[in-house]
Amino acid sequence: MLVIEIPGFGTLRLEHLVLDYNGTLARDGMLIDGVAQRLQRLANELAIHVLTADTFGRARAALEGLPCRLEILGLASQDEAKLAYVEKLGRERTACIGNGRNDRMMLEAAALGIAVVQAEGAAAQTLAVSDVVVAHVHEALDLLLCPGRLVATLRS
């Protein structure tokens, strides 16, 4: 469990990290360099879940051997499927990272929603409902690895 006290925001008691794959952890289906190492470190404190439609068919191979649970979603109603997954885990115990329009509902529902704006860009609706927006997945994962950064951003 990762506990982060943020003045004016509240205390996060996170048990789960739910991640989008394409556009978040991967570019064109290939895992972004440096992500695997960060996921290994975060797995010491959080259960890691990756949700994807696996557009490029590479997620399973790319994540093999990493401490995460992969869920490949159908093409219809991905936003609702991602939200239902977060609700099953417990919104108040879950952080989410994503970039797409199909990520917006899970980012809004989670105790902590982080949007990334990388090569694919990010959906405006997703940015609007996120607690934090960063330029790269490394920065998003590092907010959890170095929680003082998160405190500096979210405190009031």
Explain what the structure shows:
This protein is α/β, with parallel strands linked by helices and about 160 residues long. Helix content is about 35%, strand content about 30%. The chain is built from 7 helices and 10 strands. The strands form 3 sheets. Strands 7-6-3-8-9-10 form a 6-stranded parallel β-sheet, with helices on both faces. It has a two-stranded antiparallel sheet with strand order 1-2. Strands 4-5 form a two-stranded antiparallel sheet. Helix 1 runs parallel beside helix 6 and helix 6 crosses helix 7. The longest helix has 12 residues. The chain is globular. It starts with a strand and ends with a helix.
